Amino acid sequence: MNVSVDGDLISYASSNDDGDPHQALDAASFPGLYIGGKPVPVDRGLAFEVEILDKGSAAASWDGCGISVGVCSKRHPLDFHPGFSSESVAFRIGDRSLFKGNGGMQRGFGPKVEVGDKIGVGVRSVPKQEQVRLGGGAGSGGGNQALVYFTRNGKEFGSTKFQCAYLM
């Protein structure tokens, strides 16, 4: 894969990074993917932040939208981006959309993101008395319910309830 990790820096280089957005993508040019190996801390502030050092070219992404930041359960497939399978949620910076499990999408969810911005993700527990049955989307079949929230440069801009038996 075209993803490398050096300390706390994650880099991705597409094999289709020549600037031609109409060039066909082969399997090696699909967007890079990194899934951390540690559980997300719940109710302890931000789980992590990602500083956007370069948004890349439209050609570096199968949909022209580039970087997604999110969380997933330990059952999440390692070859799927968070937000595109059950028990996962992600914010995609290129089109500012929230992706929630199998097909749940909300356009215009977050702010415009620029190089130098830091996008954070945190998870808060939802008290049992405030939990509701979530229809469709990410992990709607029971388990713990959490509030996944996103920040830009330290300021929260949006959140979504997320039901997942294996997130916590």
Topology:
Blueprint: E1 3-6, E2 9-12, E3 46-51, E4 68-72, E5 88-92, E6 97-100, E7 104-106, E8 118-125, E9 144-152, E10 155-164
Can you characterise this structure?
The strands form three sheets. The protein has a four-stranded antiparallel β-sheet with strand order 3-8-9-10, with no helix packed on it. With 168 residues, it is mainly beta. 0% of the residues lie in helices and 35% in strands. The protein has a single domain (38-164), classed as Sandwich (Jelly Rolls), CATH 2.60.120. The protein has no helices and ten strands. It is globular. A hairpin with a 3-residue loop joins β6 (97-100) and β7.
- Please state roughly what percent of the residues sit in beta strands, choosing from under 5%, 5-15%, 15-25%, 25-35%, 35-45% or over 45%: 25-35%
CATH class category label: Mainly Beta
Uncertain runs: 19-29, 135-141
> What Rg do the Cα atoms give?
16 Å
Order of helices and strands: EEEEEEEEEE
Features of this protein?
4-stranded antiparallel β-sheet, mainly beta, Jelly Rolls, globular
